[in-house]
Amino acid sequence: MINTLIHGFFDGPGVLFADKLDESGHFNIVHWVGHVDDQNGRRKFDCYIVDQHIGKLHSGDYEYDSVCWAEVCRNKKQILKEMIRHRYISNLEDSIIDHLIFNRVCYYRWLLNSKNVDLVVFGNIPHEGFDTILYRVAIAMGIKVRIFFNIPVQYMKVISRVEDVGDLDDPVEDPEVAQYDLSKVCSLDYMVNATRGNQKYYQEKIYHKLLLPPSKALGLESRLLRWLYSGSGLSPSELKIYYKFRKRLLRATSCRAPFKKFVYLPLHLQPEMTTCALGGDYDDQALMIEHLREWLPDEYGIVLKENPKQGKRFPRAADRLYRTNNFFKRIKKLPMTCIVPQETDSIELIKKSAFTVTVTGTAGFEALLQGKNCLVFGLAWYRKFHGVHEWQANPRFEQLVKGVNKQKLMIDCSRHFNACINLTELSSEQTASEYMKHILYSLNQNVT
């Protein structure tokens, strides 16, 4: 029996997955980090809830370990950025946050030791701060880790390290196996409902200039902001933060791309896993743009487009760390670099560009489907596909402006997706049990 600690799996299929693990005869669930009750309201596993009551933990209750603390400290910058998304933490002083991190390191070490844990299973890439601490402590203690990575194209894959994201499995021996219809490999509809708001670029700019100043003088600013950004789901105080962001963005936006030759770089939503956990130093997207500008030939421009969801999720964290005044100032200083309105069609920009640039975004895969190369700065799930060039590998510009060989791309898609769990056929509740069997099979293959 493998003593197993699981983290996440909060939805219905996740509960079924935990049940199957517990009933399989191979795994002994000794701890479940999360809040899950059965249908009768009984707590099924020993759950630990990460919430505002974290302050009740006292490091003096648990034994300090220098190896675990050193591993966490090496990744502290990432952890701090991930934790800042939590509203109750974003308002704390740095010294208190440091204390909370230290408490959590000590607690998780004690927990893993006291439960004799052999395996830690995550329901997603650790990216919210506290789960990253658990991941790093498990690594430091030499405990096996398995991570269920949900690719934003309805596939799931099991990996043993975050660094494994994007690694391809063994080559396909028969190329005929790889005859994928690339237009149907992925239903890239995850951004369909990511509307920017009710107003277009010019309309919003007019409202900002003509309506907001008098409404502020009359004490009607909050009411007007609720109307202007209706459907955002933000509180009055968050709406003011969001308005400041929109004001900065509109001021930095050009009505169209003024370059004949350019590369396209859609900005990531931040804070988010795609940059915090998978982007490394390029979680700072302005740094990526600066490095790209230094590398690109002078005659090529950089066209940026803001993420439709930016500012609506975790507005305080985004305002404090990511879309600051300094972010836009850094971009403004760069020659041959512009931001286009958010309603600009991304597919058209991909088609017109020399190639697409991203940290780990799915826009890079969309570029491959359009026959264009892409340049990635982080651990993109498709980073080993044909047509993808990694920044760390010192790419050559001449290679990036060439076309993509669709046959080679299909073979790489086969190597990747054949090793994944296809979720597209398992959407109903009736197929949840079968879905869990696939996950359990995949996990068993990785553990044994």
Characterise this structure:
This protein is an alpha/beta fold and 448 residues long. Helix content is 42%, strand content 12%. The protein has helices at residues 12-23, 66-74, 76-83, 87-90, 94-114, 130-140, 182-185, 201-217, 221-228, 236-252, 273-276, 285-295, 315-322, 325-332, 346-352, 363-369, 397-400, 406-417, 432-447, and strands at 2-7, 27-33, 119-122, 144-151, 155-159, 262-266, 301-305, 337-340, 356-358, 374-376, 388-390, 421-422. The strands form 3 sheets. Strands 2-1-3-4-5-12 form a 6-stranded mixed β-sheet. Helix 1 (12-23) crosses helix 19 (432-447) and helix 5 (94-114) crosses helix 6. The longest helix has 21 residues, at 94-114. It starts with a strand and ends with a helix. The model is unreliable at 40-59, 172-178, 189-199 and 427-432 (pLDDT under 50).
Assigned CATH architecture of the largest domain: 3-Layer(aba) Sandwich
Low-confidence stretches: 40-59, 172-178, 189-199, 427-432
The CATH topology of the largest domain is: Rossmann fold
Integer-rounded radius of gyration: 23 Å
Q: How would the blueprint of this fold be written?
A:
Elements: E1 2-7, H1 12-23, E2 27-33, H2 66-74, H3 76-83, H4 87-90, H5 94-114, E3 119-122, H6 130-140, E4 144-151, E5 155-159, H7 182-185, H8 201-217, H9 221-228, H10 236-252, E6 262-266, H11 273-276, H12 285-295, E7 301-305, H13 315-322, H14 325-332, E8 337-340, H15 346-352, E9 356-358, H16 363-369, E10 374-376, E11 388-390, H17 397-400, H18 406-417, E12 421-422, H19 432-447
Parallel strand pairs: 1-2, 1-3, 3-4, 6-7, 7-8, 9-10, 10-11
Antiparallel strand pairs: 4-5, 5-12
Helix pairs in contact: 1-19, 2-6, 5-6, 8-9
